[in-house]
Amino acid sequence: MAWWHMSLNKTVFFICVLFIILSVGVHFTPNFSSISIISLLNGASPNYRNPCIDFLHSIEYKNRTECADRPVEKTWSWMQSRPRVATCEFKKLKKPDASVMLNRSWVVFAGDSQTRLGMISLLKLVELPERVRKVREDLAKLHTDYSTFVDSIGMKLDFKWKPYVRRLSKLMLEFKKNKKYPDIIVMGAGLWDMLYENNVSDYDASLRGLRNSLQDLNSKDRRVQPHLFWLGMPTLINSKLKTEEKRHNLTEPRRIRYDNTVNGSKLLNKFGGPCLKLDIQLLSELCGPQCTKDGLHYDEIVYDIAIQIMLNAMLIESTHKTHF
């Protein structure tokens, strides 16, 4: 039922914008000024096959002017200097636009602490600051599930603590068993597999099991299917890791090996799988070592960008479903 509401809201959203375009020319109403209907129509293609998807991670960081009383802050943008990126016309969605997209939807983030940071970034986009602060306080209790409800848009947001890939597979089976499916699922795990188990073969087997469970979840028999995303591991700064165990096990060469295992499992859309990757490794590397205090968890801007990439990808896919 949640998916039906989400699909209906998107349809109404795009029809309204198109009507305004036809009626008054190239101007949008204030609430939707950040979305270009032309880029969305041109970007329509099923299963994330539109070429613009390949350029979603083409971003660049910029430093704000340094002030004596506060540290340098980073901003970011898509690389408009690249003609293809400029043609795609990606937009940073603000609260009104994101709220329309996510109205009456069910969003699940499942995985480790990286995924939890992604959940916070999405919540920041649609919720009041004081509510976000409360959620941060609640999530200080590490290694727990969390659920909240954004009353203003009727959005349910869940975080499922599943730091091992095999636990993600079990979660997908629970959705299937209960016949209740989120509208959006963002997953990510691997750091705990590296840190505590260090068995690439088992990791590969778990990824393939997850891929199979997601393919069942995304059965063509279902009228509407979830948006599926894989939130990748970050660049690891070994010298900043806090414990000897982490410095020994969480190395960049090992991360690369685990990333290659994800690619080989065909979990990702790029390799024929069901998930679009949110490339935290690339986004964190571009931000640089100054963006992390512990060599593992990065500043909020990294996860904010990942959420913007996710929403832009959803707009491309949803436009195809609406207009074709």
Automatic annotation (TrEMBL):
Superkingdom of the source? Eukaryota
Biological processes, Gene Ontology terms = xylan biosynthetic process
Q: Which UniProt keywords apply?
A: Membrane, Transmembrane, Transmembrane helix
Where found, per UniProt?
Answer: Membrane
Q: Which GO terms describe its cellular component?
A: Golgi apparatus; membrane
Q: What PANTHER family is this protein classified in? A: N-ACETYLNEURAMINATE 9-O-ACETYLTRANSFERASE (PTHR13533), PROTEIN ALTERED XYLOGLUCAN 9 (PTHR13533:SF31)
Q: What is this protein called?
A: PC-Esterase
Origin species, per record, is Abeliophyllum distichum
